[in-house]
Structure formats: structure tokens, C-alpha cells
Specification:
This protein is mainly alpha-helical and 189 residues long. It has a domain of 101 residues. 68% of the residues lie in helices and 8% in strands. The C terminus is likely disordered.
């Protein structure tokens, strides 16, 4: 087996030196000036080192890309959760406002009528708003959550709409009974 030799100059005294390739990149002592110096890399070792550096740089860039994608995905998911939470809070606030108004005006016939109409409008608004919600972003848990939110919102909207229709109908009965009790009117033919 033949050993390869590296020829180079001492970095201190500029003496021509030769060393076995196995010492490339390691420390050696100059026989002329006696100073310790690094033996330069052979062309083969230099090429290997460059390849390792290039692969390390590629791996670093890949890690940075994956990290950036994960941060972007996390940011999008948190924004989506915030929007969904805001939509739920808005829905709860609208329902509570409608309930308070109905409670405040329950004794008067026109209050029931206005409350019924408001429930019909609120139900239509909520139902259509949630039916129109965009769920075409992509597959996965986040899209499933959006679809569930859309379905729940639509069901709540339809429920409010139906409750409003029932309230308007009950208001008609209540108004008739209220008019009878106030004016002594009867329904006899």
C-alpha cells in the first residue's frame, strides 16, 4: 500500500516540507525552525471538508425552512382559533341580547311581536352567516373545526328563526287574549 505525500512550505520559515497525507489537518513540527504548525489539507481532504460543509449548510437551511413553516402554521391556527372564538362570543352576545329584550317586553303583546321578528331576523342573519362561512381552506383538524362551527352556527340560526316564528304566533294568541281582557271582547258569533 502506497502512502501519499503532501508538499508544502513552513508558514514560519518558508522551508519546503513533505509529510504523509495521514497528517493533513493535524499539527506537525518544522525540522528547520522547530515551530509547531498545522499541516494543510490534501486535495482529497479539502474536497471532503467542502462536501461536509455544503451538506451542513443544506441541512441548516432545511431546518430553518421547517421551523418557519411550523411558525407560520402555528400563527395561522391561532388566528383561526381567535376568529372562531370571536364568532362564538358574538353569537352568545346576540342570543343574550335577544333573551334580555324578550324578558323585558314579555308582558306586552307588541313586545312579543317585536321579539319574534327580531328572533326571525337574528336567526336568518346567524344561519346565513354561518352557512356562507368558507371551509374550503384544506383538510385536517382545523377545517373539521370550521365545518363543525358552521354546522352548529347554522343550526342555532335555524333554531332562532323557528323560535321567532313560534313567538310571533304565540304573540297573536296573547294579543287576542290581552285585548279580550282589556276590552271585554268575546269571540262569540
Amino acid at each position: 500500500m502506497t502512502t501519499r505525500t503532501i508538499w508544502y512550505k513552513c508558514p514560519f520559515c518558508k522551508t519546503d516540507l513533505e509529510t504523509d497525507q495521514a497528517l493533513s489537518g493535524k499539527q506537525d513540527t518544522c525540522p528547520e525552525c522547530g515551530k509547531v504548525h498545522s499541516v494543510p489539507l490534501s486535495k482529497l481532504d479539502f474536497a471532503k471538508q467542502k462536501a461536509v460543509q455544503k451538506e451542513a449548510e443544506r441541512a441548516r437551511k432545511e431546518v430553518e425552512r421547517i421551523r418557519a413553516e411550523a411558525q407560520q402554521r402555528t400563527r395561522k391556527e391561532s388566528q383561526q382559533r381567535a376568529r372562531q372564538n370571536q364568532e362564538k362570543a358574538d353569537l352568545r352576545a346576540a342570543e343574550e341580547t335577544a333573551r334580555r329584550w324578550i324578558r323585558a317586553n314579555a308582558g306586552r303583546p307588541e313586545g312579543g311581536l317585536i321579539g319574534g321578528v327580531l328572533l326571525i331576523l337574528l336567526g336568518a342573519f346567524v344561519g346565513v352567516g354561518f352557512m356562507a362561512m368558507d371551509v374550503s381552506v384544506g383538510a385536517g383538524i382545523a377545517n373539521l373545526d370550521k365545518m363543525n362551527l358552521r354546522l352548529c352556527g347554522t343550526v342555532v340560526g335555524v333554531g332562532l328563526f323557528i323560535a321567532g316564528i313560534i313567538l310571533v304566533g304565540l304573540n297573536a294568541i296573547h294579543a287576542r287574549l290581552w285585548a279580550v281582557s282589556l276590552h271585554g271582547l268575546s269571540r262569540t258569533p
